[in-house]
Amino acid sequence: MIALHYSVFDGTNTKKAICLMSHQERASVVAIAICLLLNGYISVRLWDLFETGALSGENAPMVWARAIVWVVPAAIALTVLSNIGFAIVTRGRKQKINTDERDHLYRSRGMCITLFVFAFGFVGMLIGLATGWSVVIALTLLYAAAALGDLAGQCVRLASYRIGC
Fold first, then answer.
1. DSSP H or E segment with residue 52
2. CB half-sphere exposure, 34, CA atoms < 13 A
3. Residues 131-162: pLDDT tens digits?
C-alpha cells in the first residue's frame, strides 16, 4: 500500500505527520484508482451486454457507444472529487506543484508505455477487422488497449517516483 503520510517524533514526544507523496505521485495514484474502478465497471457492463445479445444486432455499435460514452465525464468528475477529498483530508494545506527534469522524464516514460500498449492494441484491432471480427469486438479491443495502456503508463510513472530512477 502506498503511504500518504508517516509519523516521526520531533524529540518533544509529539508526533508530526510528514507528507511523503508529491503532487505528481498523488495524481498517478488517483488515476490508477479511477482507471481500475471505471474499467472494472465497464468490463462487467460490456460482459452483460454480450451475454444478453445486445451487442449482436445491427445497432450493436450504437449500444456499445452508449455504454462507453459516459466514461470520460465520469473520470473527470471522479478526479475532481478525489482532489477535493484530498484537500479536505489535508485540511486545505497547499501543496507545492513544482516540476523539474525528473518529473518530465517520468511523465515521458509513462507516456511511452501508454502509447506502446495502445499501438499494440490498435494493430491487433486492425488485424482482427481484416480477419472478420465484428466492429463491436474491434472497438472493445481498442478500448481495452487504451485502458490498459493508461493503467500501465500510470503504474510505470508511479514506480519511477517510488524507485527514484
1. helix 23-52
2. 21
3. 999 999 999 999 999 999 999 999 999 999 88
